Amino acid sequence: MTADETPSTTAVPERVVGLTLTRRPVRIAGMVIAAGVIAVLNGAVGLAVGGAVVALGLITAAPVAFGAGVAGLLISPEIDPVLHTIGALALLAVLVDPAVGTPTGRRALVAAAGISLMIGAGTYSLLAVWSLPAVTVGLVLSVALIMYAIHRYERVTLGLVSDSNQ
Amino acid sequence: MQATRQFWATAAIGLLFSLLAIGGDQPVALIGVAGIGVWLIATSWTAVRSFQHLDETLEIEYALDPSTTYVDTPATVSLTVTRPEGSASTRMQVSPRLPAGLRRTTETAPSLTLGAGETEATVTVPLHADVAGEFTLPAPTVSLTDTFELYTEQLSRGPQPKLTVLPQTPTVHIGKGGKPYGNAFGEHSTDQPGPGIATRDLRQYIVGEDAMNIDWKSTARLGEPYVRETEGETDRHTALLVDHRAHTGESATEETPLEYIREAALAMTASAVGHSDPLSLWTVGDDGLTETLAAGSTPAAYTRVRSTLLGLTPTASATDHRPAPTRRIQTVIESLDVETPARQTLQRYGTGATAVKSVREDAFVDAVYRARTQIGAGMWLVLVTTDADPMRLRESIKLATQGGTEVLVLIVPTVLFQRAHLETITEAYDAYTEFEQLRRELDSHPRVTALEVAPGDRLRTLLSVEQSERHKPEAR
Fold first, then answer.
1. pLDDT confidence tier of residue B476, bands split at 50, 70 and 90
2. Are A61 and A17 in contact (CB under 8 A)?
3. How many CB atoms lie within 10 A of CB B391?
4. Are strands B279-285 and B237-243 parallel, antiparallel or unpaired?
5. Could A157 and B52 be called an inter-chain contact, meaning their C-beta atoms sit closer than 8 Å?
6. Is the CB of B148 less than 8 angstroms away from the CB of A13?
7. What is the mean pLDDT of residues B38-64?
8. Which residue, of A120, B11, B72, B257, is most buried by count of CB atoms within 10 Å of its CB?
9. Rounded CA gap, B312 and B11, in Å?
10. Quick one: average pLDDT of A85-105?
11. Mutate which of B8, B41, B94, B150 to disrupt the A interface (most A C-beta within 10 Å)?
């Protein structure tokens, strides 16, 4: 097959930009649960916002849908630990939805679950000690550092880094 | 690993929430930051693992057909990529790269793309070479994209095939008087007895000699012990002296004498390779030697000779000149201070000596002199040149044969390149006759074999047209 032809793929990646109505059950379920949490927390306003979040979440890419859901949770004046945790888990399912059913998806899901536990636990622990801005900065820097370490590891293992000093 | 636009868009969403968390004092925004962070780390790790697995299992076949071609003759390079099912989750694009001097004949850049789940693809690229030479095709570029299109990577993987492009020489005739001579590059003997197959002599056994040498059949037939001597066969040092002065590039036709000179020299190289003979190369430009390759019989030495020959172009008069070590010739005439009858008698010989001296100032003659003096006896000197300067060619042969050196001279008749369509056939034939006389004169030397190297079709045309012209009056 040449470049002129469109390659057929078994897993069609989600686009960040571009509107396509999704029919993926995990995504739909996650968005509906998140919308329900927003509605319960905020009443009639929450219902309207939840509807908008679902509508947006079904036509945009997973990261955008996730962002819309988190933004919907932000309008709540108070934090309900149980409801917010349910909402967060539902939105996390929306985020990892592209990995469901793909050849490498299981590996990505396992990795995401493990990392979620570590980062979630670490963030929650730090919130008891540090201020919110400090925890946020620490979280962003940690993610950036881990990403860079993975990048360097890949360069070395694929032989893209010369051993010589010259 | 390079990030795609989708990666940056996703990361931007995470950063937006981090700003909300810091500026708006919103702890819920941390869900967004942590969620995006988790997703990016998980996908990057998955991408790295899939790239590594693909790199380990990827098979790339990159083959030229043919591997040796001619200028302006089509060739193809086929690229086949195979990967196992387990590595087929990554989207992959493989693009062949071409070195300078080679170009593809298709308008669009050829490449092959394997989507997720696809395991094999082939693309064939038609190639065209405008210049002669040896080209090494760089390894193809493999572009990988992960399943989620967040990361890409470019690798250079696969073999690096070599394409040899020879100059166009449609029909090279090597022969004598228009007839092919097939024994120019054949087997060679040393003219000395030694181990071999061909019988040289049968002589009586000398007491003390190894009994193993006795030829028992001859001994039984003649009643006395006899020894059969055989022709010794050995590696022969071939010194190839190739002319690429400016006149070798002058032609009224599409081809130049240099192309035929090169073809003949490459044939000699192939012969040396076939016999594993040590081969040295001397190339001569207008200002003297342009390249000297010491004798060698290793594949690398032969490759150097071939590369040098393929890269030869007619010189201008600006090449580096390395003049021969000059020796002051003190003639008898110069030693006579005063005008005497003896000096007058010797004067005309003195003029001859001056002429010889001026001939040696010629680049080709000088090169022959250097080659013969530096390499010494026992070699086979092969001169490849044109008949542009018969006097200096004679002088070259004279110098070359000194000391018992065997010489093969391959001469390109310039007459076949001076007339585009051979309009004045009689003139052309006369010029060719002169060339043939020169060749025969050189060939008459016991240690010289002189052969013509010419475009076969043009030579055949010349000879056949002249023959038919000659028969016309007889027919009337």
1. very low
2. yes
3. 11
4. parallel
5. yes
6. yes
7. 92
8. B257
9. 58
10. 86
11. B41
Could you report the predicted ipTM of this complex, rounded to two decimals? Answer: 0.84
Task: Indicate the range of B45-54, B200-209, B342-351 predicted with least confidence.
Answer: B342-351
> What was the pLDDT predicted at B337?
58
Asked if A13's CB is within 8 angstroms of B46's CB, the reply is no
Whether residues A154 and B27 touch (CB distance < 8 A) is answered with no
Cα–Cα distance between B278 and B213 in angstroms, integer?
A: 30
- For chain A, the straight-line distance linking the first and the last C-alpha, in angstroms and rounded, comes to 41
- B174 with B185: CB under 8 angstroms? no
- pLDDT class of B227 with cuts at 50, 70, 90: confident
Q: Which of B5, B42, B146 has its CB closest to that of A112?
A: B42
Q: What is the DSSP letter of B72?
A: T
Which residue among A7, A73, A112 sits closest to B38, beta carbon to beta carbon? A112
Residues of A in contact with B81 (CB under 8 A): none
- Would you state the torsion angle of the CA atoms of residues B329, B332, B337, B340, taken in this order, to the nearest 10 degrees? -150
- pLDDT of B174: 87
Expressed in angstroms, the distance from the first to the final Cα of chain B is 87
Amino acid, res. B280: S
For residue B34, list chain A residues with Cβ-Cβ distance below 8 A: 116, 119-120, 123, 139
A62-74 and A25-59 helices cross at what angle (nearest 10)?
Answer: 80
Which residue is listed with tokens 């693809």? B121
Among candidates A111, A133, A158 on the partner chain, residue whose Cβ is nearest the Cβ of B42:
A111
Chain B residue with the nearest C-alpha to that of A115: B38
pLDDT band at B132 (very low <50, low <70, confident <90, very high): confident
**Is the per-residue pLDDT at B195 higher than 60?**
no
For range A46-60, the mean pLDDT: 92
- Cβ–Cβ < 8 Å for B401, B426: no
Q: In order of start, what are the domains of chain B with their CATH numbers?
A: 1-166 (2.60.40.10), 172-188+236-475 (3.40.50.410), 189-227 (no CATH)
Report the candidate in B183, B310, B42 with the shortest Cα–Cα distance to residue A112. B42
Residue B60 Cα, gap to closest chain A Cα (Å): 15
Identify the DSSP state of B223.
S
C-alpha–C-alpha distance, residues B181 and B459, integer Å: 14
Give tens-digit pLDDT for B259-312.
Answer: 899 989 988 898 888 888 889 999 999 888 898 998 888 888 898 998 899 888
Instruction: Convert B84-121 to b/e letters by CB count within 10 Å (16 or more is b).
Output: eeebbbbbbbbbbebeeebebeeeeebbbbbbbebeeb
